[in-house]
Amino acid sequence: MLAVDTNVLVRVLVDDPDAPEQCRAARKAVAEAGAVYVPQVVQIETIWVLAGAYGLDKAGIVAALSAIAAHPAFRLQEPEIFAAALAGYRSGSADFADLVILAESTQAGCELATFDRKLGKLPGAHPVRPA
């Protein structure tokens, strides 16, 4: 099994006109590997890169995340966490990374203390407000 970093995963997902050779090489490496491990930090960084560097909107990011989840070659670290974060991201306004943290906390049996107002409204989160 091959593990991928963020740059390789992004090149698999997008057609980067500035890096067509990298896109071809990334896709070839993934196809040849057959099974690809995607660490959780790569999942999170990928969202940041897709939004920041490529300007994808939420719908585009959800489509990319859904493609990763549905593709039989990808083996996600903590697939249940990914699925919970994706469901929350798809239907809400919280950041994907924050939703990963919330899902991890919930899975650990913990309530998540947060200053984030969006996140603080979700089940499993405990809003912390300065006095």
Describe the protein in words:
By secondary structure, the protein is mainly alpha-helical. It has two domains: 1-77, no CATH class; 79-131, no CATH class. It has seven helices and five strands. It has helices spanning 6-13, 20-33, 40-52, 58-70, 79-91, 96-107, 117-120; strands at 2-3, 36-38, 74-76, 112-114, 125-127. The strands form two sheets. It has a three-stranded parallel β-sheet with strand order 1-2-3. Helix 7 (117-120) links the parallel strand 4 (112-114) and strand 5 (125-127). Helix 1 crosses helix 3, helix 4 (58-70) runs antiparallel to helix 5 (79-91) and helix 5 packs across helix 6 (96-107). The longest helix is centred in the N-terminal third of the chain and has 14 residues, at 20-33. The N and C termini lie far apart (51 Å). The mean pLDDT is 95.
